[in-house]
Amino acid sequence: xxxxxxxxxxxxxxxxxxxxxxxxxxxxxxxxxxxxxxxxxxxxxxxxxxxxxxxxxxxxxxxxxxxxxxxxxxxxxxxxxxxxxxxxxxxxxxxxxxxxxxxxxxxxxxxxxxxxxxxxxxxxxxxxxxxxxxxxxxxxxxxxxxxxxxxxxxxxxxxxxxxxxxxxxxxxxxxxxxxxxxxxxxxxxxxxxxxxxxxxxxxxxxx
Length: 207
Hints:
Blueprint: H1 2-25, H2 27-31, H3 42-58, H4 61-68, H5 71-92, H6 98-124, H7 134-155, H8 160-182, H9 185-189, H10 193-197, H11 203-206
């Protein structure tokens, strides 16, 4: 179970983190698709992208918890999420721009709801996804994330008609680079034909 859990977290990490970073860095260009005035939502978009990436990585723990833990443990995440949302809303709404306050409140609750099952598995089942391979995976993926985010930010200076396809290509390239260089060979081989078609493994390794 631990190996499957760890594999799922590694796989989602190398996809979600660089993708969110590139989309956040190119947020102004993406928002331009919605017309004038959409730029006001840039902070909200960045917050939601970061929260969604974190939720995607930690969210793997919920189905694992459903398999190995008691039902009462499964309710904890929802209850904590509601409590965190209420507290964050109380502290933020009225003190920040309304859009940003609501967005940050929702993001905090989303991350908290995803984090609780991971914490429960660690505390009650001694089960976590952070094997010896994870630090290298995270470091390599974050390097690809930094490169992709920097390129997307630079591409945002171009006219929108040029910047938009560039950001899409950078996002795809960052995810590929992250998966190719961050994932251990065994993870990439486990993807089978998909991994070979995407050239995540070399010809010699695939044979």
